[in-house]
Amino acid sequence: MREAVQDRVNFGFILRIVAVATIGGFMFGYDSGAINGTQDGLKRAFGLDEAQLGLTVSALLPGCALGAFLAGRFADIWGRRTVMMLAAILFLLSALASGASPSAVILAVARFLAGVSVGAASVLSPAYISEVTPAAMRGRLASAQQVMIISGLTGAFFANYYLAQAAGSSLGSFWAGQPAWRWMFWVQAAPALLFLLALLGIPESPRFLVARARAPEAQKVLTRLFGADAAATKLVEIGASLSADHKPSLADLRKPGGGWRPIVWTGIGLAVFQQLVGINVVFYYGAVLWQAVGFTEADALKINIVSGAVSIIACIVSILLIDRIGRRPLLLVGSAGMALTLGILAWCFAQAHLVDGALALPAGVGAIALVAANIYVVFFNLSWGPVMWVMLGEMFPNQMRGSALAIAGAAQWLANFLVSSSFPWLAKNVGLAGTYAAYTLFSFLSLIFVIMRVRETKGIELEAMEG
After folding, report:
1. Is the dihedral of CA 47, 167, 178, 163 positive or negative?
2. Judging by DSSP bridges, how do beta strands 358-360 and 353-355 pair with one another?
3. Quick one: CA dihedral 243, 244, 248, 251, positive or negative?
4. What is the pLDDT of residue 4?
5. Helix axes of 401-429 and 60-77: crossing angle, nearest 10 degrees
6. pTM, full prediction
7. Could you give the maximum distance between any two Cα atoms of the chain, in Å?
8. Domains and CATH numbers, the chain
9. SS3 state of residue 193
10. Residue (of 301, 401, 325) closest to 139 by Cα position
11. Which residue has the higher pLDDT, 97 or 28?
12. What confidence score (pLDDT) does residue 387 get?
């Protein structure tokens, strides 16, 4: 029976939906990469010190936490697609405002609003994909989110490099006499507009429609996805998995004896550890980091491009493996690999010394650091990068998925904010070696967490997930 159902799956339609939904991931990645090349411009234009730069760069992240929390709840009220459309509109407006900002305060506000949209898209895109794809291929298709995040990052690195080269540097004048770093923000409007227009061509999640007592609409979507016979069966399964006496709410997260259900804490742990390993230090501060150890601005931007390309290859490998070997083995391999490579980076940075007031690595050590950093990025994008988003989109029962995503998504972005905003201060006052030693410790702790708390979800239907 399962093979017969599989034969009627409308793969073309599903792939189109996935392609559209993952533009939200591209949008998220592009913003993370764009800020990487603007920091010299921000310091020069607004007179920022290291602490102020860290807060301005990271202003996106509290907005992301708020957006992830609100999106999870509003998606249960208005629908997944509707909230993603609102996120696209907000991101478009914030991109324009960021580039035109006359002060650091206005830029921080614009980036906070961009964060609301990015946070919403980051949790809803993988959840939406999980809700419209067959269990047998759900991991591969939901992993496309991370490929698009990294593609967005790489696209931003290419754009930043081009703009800086065309203008002479990120501080040089480009079109309309505006400095290149402002155009690095304005270019973000393009993926936001594409996301908005593309969302008009895909349907609402059938699981949301059933939860809102819109079964006829849900059946139409399911029929188009899986065929008439499978749609009828799936409609009954979805209805049975949803509580009959109330609509989804935050109360669904509580266990009978009080407190949150263990599955919610597992989701929070996955979300937080994904950030505590320090990956966004590479994403947000890559150019600054490599300049700090002796590379030129042009070389640092080229290194970012290489890291982005390597990340995409790692994500593709993850897509090929995730529905074969499962989510948990990839997380275990990733944690072990990140702990090793981060430890090497900590050792490399411990060898740094000052030359004419600038930090530099001894001959040969810089090359080791560069290789270790890229291998670290490979391990992350082979494992925690895509797998965390896949699991958050699928691990929770239907009744609590929106609410649990709200909590876990907010936790993920708050952890991101903590790591990203603290890095400039830590690098200056603790040193790069001590900072990367802390990320090494968290990578090792993430390995213990997976062993003790994470259950495999490979091949399990969403209606069979237990809380």
Report:
1. negative
2. antiparallel
3. negative
4. 43
5. 180
6. 0.78
7. 73
8. 2-454 (1.20.1250.20)
9. helix
10. 325
11. 97
12. 94
